[in-house]
From TrEMBL:
Its main location: other. The lineage of its organism: Eukaryota, Metazoa, Spiralia, Lophotrochozoa, Annelida. It comes from the Eukaryota. Keywords: Cell cycle, Cell division, Coiled coil, GTP-binding, Nucleotide-binding. GO terms for molecular function: GTP binding. Pfam families: Septin. It is found in: Cleavage furrow. SUPFAM superfamilies: P-loop containing nucleoside triphosphate hydrolases (SSF52540). This is DgyrCDS11197. PROSITE patterns: G_SEPTIN.
Length: 352
């Protein structure tokens, strides 16, 4: 891929017109790190969906009653010179515990631990070679037999929606009729709003975006939550021209055949387009929103660490001033908390 060199001496030209090619070449060389977490009860086809999405061969986890266990697998996918290092984090045993709320904690801890690791690396000396293991996207699998969000779904989503980009999935959509599917989608969207649960939202379209991209974004938004069918099996289907048959991914039943890539049967294609076309935005939102929330909270409670994180390149005097400012800010917050506590105590006495 050759960079187009522009003569900066040409009238009206600065000379940075070749930057897009340079940036693209750098990204090609470095590749992308993307971490996808899949959460859902056993038997909902999590591994099958990932394999269908990325054409990988991740083994399915054995079903059984067990404590929740976090397992991570990494595969490297290369396509037209672009490398994608995909890490899939599976949550084996989710929903199998007697006390499911306690069972959420390993997932919360894992997400926070990746933020903490990135924060430590970012504050260290070798910041150029940070490995980004933060969770960029969480696919949450909703049991289609329930026809709505169950209490376990709502509890869990409330815990994670401010930590990670959540994309809700209705797997095994071939268990539902078209009317049942639409009713379930409407119910889930209503439950998300009622419980103030945020999910990943597409960035707004720009005025100069082409019409096809705007239409795609509308299709994606209308499809949430995504009712998908996943399968690596090939089934025969008559060609559109009526000449012979071809093999496509799908499932065959006594009553007929469902096709993975047919939008009349499944939202699989729309889900895939969402993830592939918004890989960068999912990473950006992770960094600028979720990670920054974690980072701000951590540093606000630790003035010395805040100084170490932000004082790179400052003089000793400037570092001392920054530390004093952080300590004063912390004292101010503690004073406000104590005042609020006294106010509540006074209100309690008045009520008596």
């Amino acid at each position: 891929m050759d960079d187009k060199i522009i003569n900066s001496d040409e009238p009206g030209m600065v000379g940075f017109g070749g930057l897009p090619n340079q940036i693209q070449r750098t990204l090609y060389k470095k590749g992308f790190d993307f971490t996808l977490m899949v959460v859902g009860q056993s038997g909902l086809g999590k591994s099958t969906l990932i394999n269908t999405l990325f054409l990988t061969d991740l083994p399915a986890k054995k079903k059984g009653n067990q404590k929740l266990k976090i397992e991570s697998s990494t595969v490297e996918i290369e396509e037209r010179g672009v490398k994608l290092r995909l890490s899939v984090v599976d949550t084996v045993g989710f929903g199998d515990s007697i006390n499911n709320q306690e069972g959420f904690q390993p997932i919360i801890k894992y997400i926070d631990d990746q933020f903490e690791k990135y924060l430590r690396d970012e504050s260290g000396l070798n910041r150029r070679n940070i490995h980004d293991s933060r969770v960029h996207c969480l696919l949450y699998f909703i049991d289609p037999s329930g026809h709505c969000l169950k209490p376990i779904d709502i509890q869990f989503l409330k815990e994670v929606h401010n930590r990670v980009n959540v994309i809700p999935i209705i797997p095994k959509a071939d268990m539902l009729t078209i009317n049942e599917r639409q009713t379930m989608k409407k119910m889930i969207r209503q439950q998300l709003i009622e419980n103030k649960i945020s999910i990943y939202d597409l960035p707004p379209c720009e005025p100069d975006d082409d019409d096809s991209y705007k239409k795609l974004c509308k299709r994606i938004k209308d499809a949430v939550p995504f009712a998908v069918i996943a399968s690596m099996d090939k089934v025969p289907i008559a060609s559109a021209a009526g000449k012979g048959t071809g093999l496509v991914r799908g499932r065959t039943y006594p009553w007929g055949t469902v096709l993975v890539d047919d939008e009349k049967h499944s939202d699989f294609v729309i889900l895939k387009k969402l993830i592939i076309t918004h890989l960068q935005d999912l990473q950006d939102v992770t960094h600028t929103v979720h990670y920054e929330n974690y980072r701000s909270k951590k540093l606000s409670n630790d003035p010395k660490r805040a100084m170490a994180s932000s004082a790179s390149g400052l003089s000793q005097k400037e570092r001392d001033l920054l530390l004093k400012e952080q300590e004063l800010e912390q004292m101010k917050r503690k004073l406000q908390e104590e005042q609020e506590m006294l106010r509540k105590q006074r209100e309690g006495f008045r009520a008596k």
